[in-house]
């Protein structure tokens, strides 16, 4: 039971990176924009956050740097695909490739850097409860922030007027434009917000979760976060659930290795990606279900007045 509690706690920690990034990409896609550049944005944000933490010693400054870098990269992507009408898929892939190379170049000077000892965030009294304490009440505040973010986003999308407008833009930008809504600006704000959250996830990865800088340390988490939006049928609560599911699969490999299970480490490393493929294959067996839940204008360019 003690090992299970530790595994559960590690699952929440690992799932937070996927949850924050996945919720950011969900905002993008609800506005009708698909951004395949999450991996690159998270990598650049990871080195930006880590470098900021090294030089300032402030985690908050590191998070701000990561979110800011993610928002700027997303803004560039947004201008290209929203105003210049470049292909969303090709532009996103280019952004991901750029981020991978740029982060490796900039991060060379920080591969040997180390952060100061991380503060512990135990909730008084609750953290001392046997089994439950280590599993639920000894996490960084951002772990709980991811849960609040999912709940807040669900309320925003389904209970607030701006959220309904955002969904309308994702479903039928022509109709939203005819009603007088600035579709392009709404999409740009959504893209930048999503980029900021991807950046925050990258900074959390390098500053809190690891904490260190290694080239390519995102290791496919941006792609898994992208797959999460489809897995969750574009619903925030399901993104959170999916993030913890994939986080649990990721941590299971380390748990099995620690228990001495005689399985090649390469097979265990493959687990999160195999799980992603299996889930997407199962979902793809019902294309009608995806079509009903997917924003109707996802990935489609919008030409106002055209």
UniProtKB/TrEMBL annotation:
Leader sequence residues: none
GO CC annotation, single: plasma membrane
Coiled-coil stretches noted in the UniProt entry, renumbered to this chain: none
Keyword Transmembrane helix (UniProt): yes
Transmembrane regions listed in the UniProt entry: 6-26, 33-54, 60-84, 91-110, 141-158, 188-207, 213-232, 239-257, 263-283
CDD domains: TM_PBP1_transp_TpRbsC_like (cd06580)
Keyword set, alphabetical order: Cell membrane, Membrane, Transmembrane, Transmembrane helix
Localization annotation: Cell membrane
GO molecular function annotation: transmembrane transporter activity
Main location: membrane
Membrane topology designation: Multi-pass membrane protein
Pfam family, one: BPD_transp_2
Official protein name in the record: ABC transporter permease
Species assigned in the record: Ideonella aquatica
Lineage: Bacteria, Pseudomonadati, Pseudomonadota, Betaproteobacteria, Burkholderiales
